[in-house]
């Protein structure tokens, strides 16, 4: 079927702009549009949270009953030609997306409702499940489908972050999902006595992808495999594991038209954005080193603490983020007492745009990074990334533009910051890097073409 139109349904626990905590939502929100630009139909299915970001409530198109859940409301919002579907029942109609003790039950039940919703949606060729919250779906399509016509649906599963796996007791998960007990074994969905949601996706999806080629290689090793390197190596040997680099929503992230910044399209224009950020935070004339990030061990910002005093002699430092209470406390004290260190907490969308536009350098010392979008945004906005050489950072930050370091140690980070500061002194060399970074193509075009080719192989098998 070389020229037939596909319908791909993306199932995710968050989809931008309706619900978001991080990069998962950005991908689930952008990829369907990229697929539609290639002439295919692509839609999303996600929970109908209490805090859904939509001007009006979704249009209710169906209410159906699911044993173990009760009535489930199926809603729809059409946005720029893409249908976004939502499932509403008490367990998922919550103020927050995550952070509840019963999250494993909430998303197991969501998977069950999603499978039943397929009977009320237009025909789906490929169900593309994203991360642990949708990880049980491929197994459920194979072993718990409520209607024979669901057996013909091909499944893809994307790992966005292997560290978050979803684990719970088999007895409960089987009761929530109607999966058969014979799947609970080490070659099935069992993992050290629990059901592992992400392992289920890896084991039973027709194809498994992750969000960069380098991360796809890294997770087959004990260092990055989070205990699942064995099944991932097996998937790799079977030709089932692929790494497809995420794209960037280049319409949302475009410094030429971004309404939240002083707009610019070249190095000269960027200087105005930098001047505005410097004035906003009352920084002196040192270059601005920024980070927009979750404060978590993965992100590696703690690596800067042992030599932060030295860093502040060379840079103004600006951090927007939240998470780890210890880091938040340290950064809050620094913000109050050190003029060249500023810390803002929470998800502040407009401020994040001003930071990307106005900073000179962008810091991402991640211990691991499946893909990362911030480094792509920063280059597009003329801000040079300083990154650990891992995962998607390796695949997206060329050494002639940004600065990379290999070891996740304070000394290695110290050395690369010194290197970047030295290059900054040569303003012509710095400007050349900025201009090259702004030329990089991070659009979804290439990734969408790779996904379409992958979907077609599933339908041809």
UniProtKB/TrEMBL annotation:
<dbReference type="InterPro" id="IPR001296">
    <property type="entry name" value="Glyco_trans_1"/>
</dbReference>
<feature type="domain" description="Glycosyl transferase family 1">
    <location>
        <begin position="278"/>
        <end position="421"/>
    </location>
</feature>
<dbReference type="GO" id="GO:0004373">
    <property type="term" value="F:alpha-1,4-glucan glucosyltransferase (UDP-glucose donor) activity"/>
</dbReference>
<keyword id="KW-0320">Glycogen biosynthesis</keyword>
<comment type="similarity">
    <text>Belongs to the glycosyltransferase 1 family. Bacterial/plant glycogen synthase subfamily.</text>
</comment>
<dbReference type="GO" id="GO:0009011">
    <property type="term" value="F:alpha-1,4-glucan glucosyltransferase (ADP-glucose donor) activity"/>
</dbReference>
<feature type="domain" description="Starch synthase catalytic">
    <location>
        <begin position="7"/>
        <end position="234"/>
    </location>
</feature>
<keyword id="KW-0328">Glycosyltransferase</keyword>
<feature type="binding site">
    <location>
        <position position="20"/>
    </location>
    <ligand>
        <name>ADP-alpha-D-glucose</name>
    </ligand>
</feature>
<dbReference type="Pfam" id="PF08323">
    <property type="entry name" value="Glyco_transf_5"/>
</dbReference>
<dbReference type="Pfam" id="PF00534">
    <property type="entry name" value="Glycos_transf_1"/>
</dbReference>
<dbReference type="GO" id="GO:0005978">
    <property type="term" value="P:glycogen biosynthetic process"/>
</dbReference>
<protein>
    <recommendedName>
        <fullName>Glycogen synthase</fullName>
        <ecNumber>2.4.1.21</ecNumber>
    </recommendedName>
</protein>
<comment type="function">
    <text>Synthesizes alpha-1,4-glucan chains using ADP-glucose.</text>
</comment>
<dbReference type="InterPro" id="IPR013534">
    <property type="entry name" value="Starch_synth_cat_dom"/>
</dbReference>
<dbReference type="InterPro" id="IPR011835">
    <property type="entry name" value="GS/SS"/>
</dbReference>
<comment type="pathway">
    <text>Glycan biosynthesis; glycogen biosynthesis.</text>
</comment>
<keyword id="KW-0808">Transferase</keyword>
């Amino acid at each position: 079927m070389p020229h037939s139109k596909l319908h791909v349904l993306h199932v995710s626990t968050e989809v931008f702009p309706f619900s978001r905590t991080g990069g998962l939502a950005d991908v689930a929100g952008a990829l369907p549009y990229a697929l539609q630009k290639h002439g295919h139909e692509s839609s999303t299915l996600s929970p109908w949270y209490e805090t859904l970001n939509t001007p009006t409530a979704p249009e209710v198109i169906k209410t159906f009953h699911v044993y173990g859940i009760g009535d489930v409301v199926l809603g729809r919002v059409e946005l720029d030609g893409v249908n976004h579907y939502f499932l509403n029942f008490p367990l998922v109609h919550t103020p927050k997306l995550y952070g509840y003790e019963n999250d494993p039950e909430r998303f197991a039940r969501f998977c069950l409702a999603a499978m039943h919703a397929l009977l009320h949606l237009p025909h789906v060729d490929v169900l593309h499940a994203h991360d642990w919250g949708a990880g049980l779906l491929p197994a459920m399509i194979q072993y718990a489908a409520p209607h024979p016509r669901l057996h013909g649906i091909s499944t893809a599963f994307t790992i966005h972050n292997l560290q978050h796996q979803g684990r719970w007791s088999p007895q409960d998960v089987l009761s929530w999902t109607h999966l058969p007990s014979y799947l609970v074994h080490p070659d099935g969905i069992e993992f050290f006595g629990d059901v592992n949601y992400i392992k289920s996706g890896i084991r039973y999806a027709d194809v498994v992808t992750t969000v960069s080629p380098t991360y796809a290689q890294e997770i087959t090793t004990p260092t990055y495999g989070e205990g699942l390197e064995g099944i991932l190596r097996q998937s790799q040997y079977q030709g089932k594991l692929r790494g497809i680099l995420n794209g960037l929503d280049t319409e949302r992230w475009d410094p030429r038209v971004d309404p939240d910044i002083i707009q610019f399209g070249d190095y000269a224009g960027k200087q105005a954005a930098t001047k505005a950020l410097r004035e906003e935070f009352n920084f002196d004339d040192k270059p601005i080193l920024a980070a927009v990030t979750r404060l978590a061990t993965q992100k590696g910002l703690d690596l800067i603490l042992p030599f932060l005093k030295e860093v502040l002699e060379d840079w103004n430092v600006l951090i927007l983020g939240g998470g780890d209470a210890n880091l938040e406390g340290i950064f809050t004290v620094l913000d109050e007492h050190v003029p060249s260190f500023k810390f803002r907490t929470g998800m502040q969308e407009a401020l994040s745009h001003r930071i990307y536009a106005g900073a000179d350098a962008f810091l991402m010392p991640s211990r691991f990074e499946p893909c990362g979008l911030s480094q792509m945004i920063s280059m597009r906005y003329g801000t040079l990334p300083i990154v650990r050489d891992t995962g998607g950072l390796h695949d997206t930050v060329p050494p002639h533009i940004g600065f990379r370091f290999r070891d996740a140690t304070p000394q290695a980070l110290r050395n690369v910051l010194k290197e970047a500061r030295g290059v900054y002194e040569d303003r012509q060399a710095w400007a050349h890097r900025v201009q090259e970074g702004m030329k990089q193509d991070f659009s979804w075009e290439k990734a969408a073409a790779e996904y379409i080719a992958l979907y077609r192989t599933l339908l041809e098998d």
